Amino acid sequence: MSILKVSRLGHPVLRRVAQPMSLEELRAPSTQKLIDDMIETMKEYDGVGLAADQVHESRQIAVLEVADNPRYPDKPKVPLSVLVNPRVTPLSEDMEEDWEGCLSVPDLRGRVPRYKNIRVQTLDRDGKELDFVATDFHARVIQHEWDHLNGKVYLDRMRDLSTLTFLQEFSRYWLNV
Ligand code: NI
How far apart are CA 155 and CA 109, in angstroms? Predict the structure, then answer.
């Protein structure tokens, strides 16, 4: 497995709508290797999720996992999952604001409103159809990655930029707010 270079804000790949995957493409060894490399890359940089466009591949694939993560120490765990061609539907209008960061927007965090309850229809890495409900932080991570696959970053979702903060200032001024 390899650790891949992460695209940063300003690279056009982050603003493209990623290409849907056919089952044939998904099952190709090169795609399966890309998925393994994405998982490796996410773990290397302590991410809780990574979309393919963040490693310069404009394809509808995202990986996520929340384990013992030093960047998000207080968050509930989410098992390692691979989303392919995901569709997200909010199940209610309920939204919640919380902090997000992004490996493509290094060193910054901001407060982002997200739907609390969503339905997720997706393929897994083997092409199996999954249909499940995600809530709270799990739902947040999926919406963040889903946005990447649609050419959006979390900054686009902030109500305004007044909470945007560098990590050092986050620890100093915002951690206990
Ligand atoms: Ni991100």
Answer: 9
